[in-house]
């Protein structure tokens, strides 16, 4: 009996050494703060609510996942997720604003949104005292400060304060070509004996064939030609081969004056092209009825032949995850799908997309006091640091990966899924934390490395980088007046981008001549005073010395 007691005591000592003498099992992996936060005061527990898009899995979860718990423990806070939908988040903010219940942090597009009629415009929120500005001194948060300083002339408001933290998109402008691409079923092309299109007419012929010639060979009339991941981005890739400056529905500079791209004469070619696509059956006949992700599911299910989307490794990995839900290992995504190169425009040149250095912003409600703002900025500083990058891209060190002498070793079984897919299943909160402070889009996300091969899959990296390098070598990037685009604009009751998309849709599905219909839309806007609005914004830009 004494021997057993001694043996148990020795075993207990060994377990204590191995597990840190915790009562609830093995010790958690050591949580590491970046050097800039070593002296952060985290003694008081705080509760912070965060509104972000499509985090319903977090909002509805019964238990917090490991990354969620990791960050709460690291920063001594409770994070309350508030799910927002892309389709109605502005309307929901209005309700929250009226009821004084805005989340402490909430995502919005008050600066980078293309709509000039944003119901929650930044100036309106500031005047109604709905927001708390960033501190004047950000020296305690070097990564946060670096981001704000690099974009300060976009962010600073009339009162000299900054009320938004920009969610950076692409560290290198060349990478923004990946923000517009077209995924195509290359096996369908092969089945029908078609080649990649080199003109708009060939593109239309391809999509019509996908919709009408049974490309999957199942004998049923159940396939669609072309659609886009989000109707507000309709033509972001395709219009590059028609009227490049119009590929996003924003402002351009022509003959020394800023004006909406869809008022250009070149937009008539876009209107005609989309009517032809619709009438011929190449464009999904229900494109205007479907929700944001419906076309993605159509593509993943094998019903859509051409999907206008993005081509970054993260975007392709996301589509592949949807694909794998409907297909087994005998139908690998990379064998069935390729990325089309944009065809030449009328001037003989090929163009690629360019995007703002940041898209969307974090705003902070008026309920955020000095102490809570400090804790929020600690969180953002961490997410922008190397430590935060590893957590949100590779999971928890010691559990999902090891890092020794800066050499990464994956601890997950990636035989059937890549690291990105596995982590999103294991930690749904990554839908929030990976994008809360930045969308990513740095060289680190695109570079060919063993880490990224594990993270996204080697073939996905090859697809994405192949398209990126082709664009760099063969296309001219569209120029945009970003200083003007991100200038704080007065609200307009005349029109908005969402209204424009609705009018464009009516013309596409209409029966009268499409150009005549579009001219009628423009005449109505002119009668409502759109020219006065354009003149006013140009005067504002001139006063601000925006060229």
Outline the structure in words.
The radius of gyration is 26 Å and the shape is globular. 42% of the residues lie in helices and 13% in strands. Among the domains are: 198 residues, 3-Layer(aba) Sandwich (D-Maltodextrin-Binding Protein, domain 2); 177 residues, D-Maltodextrin-Binding Protein, domain 2 (3-Layer(aba) Sandwich). It has 547 residues and is an alpha/beta fold. The longest helix is centred in the first third of the chain and has 18 residues. The N terminus is likely disordered.
Q: Brief description of this entry?
A:
With 547 residues, this protein is α/β, with parallel strands linked by helices. The protein contains 24 helices and 15 strands.
List keywords for this structure.
4-stranded mixed sheet, D-Maltodextrin-Binding Protein, domain 2, alpha/beta, 24 helices, 547 residues
Strand order of the largest sheet: 2-1-3-12-4
* CATH architecture name of one domain: 3-Layer(aba) Sandwich
Overall mean confidence score, pLDDT: 88
**What's the number of helices?**
24
What is the beta-strand fraction?
5-15%
Terminal-residue CA separation:
89 Å
Secondary structure layout plus pairing:
Elements: H1 2-19, E1 46-53, H2 56-59, H3 66-75, E2 77-84, H4 89-98, E3 105-108, H5 122-127, H6 142-150, H7 152-155, E4 164-168, E5 181-185, H8 186-192, H9 200-212, E6 224-228, E7 251-254, E8 257-260, H10 267-280, H11 294-301, E9 304-309, H12 313-326, H13 333-336, E10 337-339, E11 351-352, E12 358-364, H14 370-383, H15 386-394, E13 401-404, E14 407-410, H16 419-426, H17 430-433, H18 443-446, H19 450-456, H20 458-474, E15 476-477, H21 482-485, H22 497-509, H23 514-528, H24 530-543
Parallel strand pairs: 1-2, 1-3, 6-9, 11-15
Antiparallel strand pairs: 3-12, 4-12, 5-9, 5-10, 7-8, 13-14
Helix pairs in contact: 9-10, 10-22, 11-12, 19-20, 22-23
């Amino acid at each position: 009996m004494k021997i057993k007691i001694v043996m148990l005591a020795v075993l207990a000592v060994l377990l204590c050494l191995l597990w840190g003498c915790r009562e609830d099992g093995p010790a958690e992996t050591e949580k590491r703060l970046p050097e800039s936060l070593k002296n952060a005061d985290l003694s008081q527990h705080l509760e912070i609510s965060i509104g972000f898009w499509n985090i319903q899995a977090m909002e509805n979860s019964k238990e917090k996942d490991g990354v969620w718990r990791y960050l709460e423990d690291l920063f001594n806070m409770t994070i309350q997720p508030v799910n927002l939908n892309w389709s109605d988040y502005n309307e929901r903010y209005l309700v929250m604003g009226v009821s004084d219940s805005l989340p402490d942090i909430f995502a919005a597009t008050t600066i980078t949104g293309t709509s000039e009629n944003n119901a929650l415009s930044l100036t309106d929120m500031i005047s109604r005292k709905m927001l708390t500005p960033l501190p004047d001194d950000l020296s305690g948060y070097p990564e946060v400060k670096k981001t704000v300083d690099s974009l300060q002339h976009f962010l600073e408001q009339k009162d000299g304060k900054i009320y938004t933290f920009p969610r950076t998109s692409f560290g290198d402008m060349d990478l923004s070509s990946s923000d517009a691409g077209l995924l195509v079923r290359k096996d369908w092309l092969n089945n029908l004996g078609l080649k990649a299109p080199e003109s708009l007419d060939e593109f239309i012929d391809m999509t019509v064939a996908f919709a009408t010639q049974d490309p999957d060979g199942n004998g049923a009339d159940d396939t669609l030609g072309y659609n886009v991941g989000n109707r507000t981005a309709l033509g972001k890739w395709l219009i590059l081969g028609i009227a490049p400056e119009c590929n996003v529905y924003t402002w351009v500079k022509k003959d020394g004056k800023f004006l909406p791209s869809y008022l250009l004469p070149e937009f008539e070619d876009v209107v005609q092209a989309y009517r032809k696509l619709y009438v011929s059956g190449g464009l999904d006949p229900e494109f205007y009825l479907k929700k944001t992700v419906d076309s993605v599911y159509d593509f993943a299910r094998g019903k859509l032949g051409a999907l206008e989307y993005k081509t970054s490794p993260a975007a392709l990995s996301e589509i592949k995850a949807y694909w794998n839900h409907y297909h087994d290992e005998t139908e690998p995504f990379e064998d069935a799908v390729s990325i089309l190169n944009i065809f030449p425009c009328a001037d003989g040149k090929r163009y690629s997309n360019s995007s703002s250095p940041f898209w969307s912003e974090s705003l902070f409600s008026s309920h955020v006091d000095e102490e809570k703002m400090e804790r929020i900025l600690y969180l953002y500083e961490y997410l922008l640091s190397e430590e935060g990058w590893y957590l949100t891209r590779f999971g928890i060190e010691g559990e999902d990966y090891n890092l020794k002498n800066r050499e990464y070793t994956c601890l997950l079984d990636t035989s059937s899924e890549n690291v990105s897919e596995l982590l999103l299943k294991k930690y749904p909160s990554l839908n929030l934390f990976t994008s809360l402070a930045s969308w990513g889009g740095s060289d680190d996300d695109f570079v060919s490395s063993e880490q990224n091969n594990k993270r996204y899959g080697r073939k996905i990296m090859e697809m994405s980088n192949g398209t990126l390098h082709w664009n760099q070598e063969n296309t001219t990037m569209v120029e945009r007046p970003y200083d003007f685009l991100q200038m704080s604009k007065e609200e307009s009751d005349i029109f908005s981008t969402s209204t424009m998309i609705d009018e464009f849709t009516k013309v596409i599905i209409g029966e009268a001549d499409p150009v005549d219909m579009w001219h009628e839309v423009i005449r109505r806007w002119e009668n409502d005073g759109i020219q006065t609005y354009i003149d006013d914004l140009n005067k504002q830009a001139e006063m601000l010395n925006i060229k």
